[in-house]
Amino acid sequence: MGQEEKLEETMENYRNIRESLTGLYEIININFNENNFFHQAAMDNLINLNNNILELLRNSHTPREIRIKLREIEFDEKQAEELFPL
User: Fold this and answer.
1) Is residue 61 within 8 Å of residue 11, measured between CB atoms?
2) What radius of gyration do the chain's Cα atoms show?
3) Most CB within 10 Å of its CB: which of 3, 32, 48, 57?
4) What distance in Å separates the CA atoms of residue 1 and residue 42, rounded to the nearest whole number?
5) In this structure, are residues 46 and 20 in contact, taking their beta carbons and an 8 Å threshold?
6) Is residue 15 helix, strand or coil?
7) How sure is the predictor about 80, in pLDDT bands with cuts at 50, 70 and 90?
8) How far from each other are the two terminal CA atoms of the chain, in whole angstroms?
9) Which residue would you say has higher pLDDT here, 24 or 70?
10) What's the pLDDT tens digit per position in 7-37?
11) Is there a contact between 86 and 24 (Cβ–Cβ < 8 Å)?
């Protein structure tokens, strides 16, 4: 598998993870009031999880590769941000 294919697979995995995080965000919002401690704790954990996944991406590929791929999915990210603001 070439470097470009490996990077594309990595970014597809990130998209899938982001979709799962969005689903968890929706479940948390349905089940907990925003002022509830568990809501706040869950949100903090989701944000930290997303940030750690992005950091792993940066460590797995060159910054330029990641920057290019992240730009390619930027539109998808903006849509996801509407549902799951990070």
Assistant:
1) no
2) 14
3) 57
4) 37
5) no
6) helix
7) low
8) 32
9) 24
10) 788 888 888 988 898 889 889 989 988 899 9
11) no
Place 40 in a pLDDT band, splitting at 50, 70 and 90.
very high
**pLDDT tens per residue across span 48-64:** 998 888 788 777 777 77
DSSP 8-state secondary structure symbol assigned to residue 85: -
Task: Please tell me the distance from the alpha carbon of residue 44 to that of residue 33, in angstroms, as a whole number.
Answer: 15
* DSSP conformation letters of 17-63: HHHHHHHHHHHHHHHS-TTSHHHHHHHHHHHHHHHHHHHHHHHHS-H
**Any idea which residue has 């089940």 for tokens?**
31
Is the overall model pTM greater than 0.70, yes or no?
Answer: no
Domain residue spans of the chain: 3-83
DSSP 8-state secondary structure symbol assigned to residue 73: T
Distances (CA, A) of 41 to 35, 44, 61: 11, 5, 31
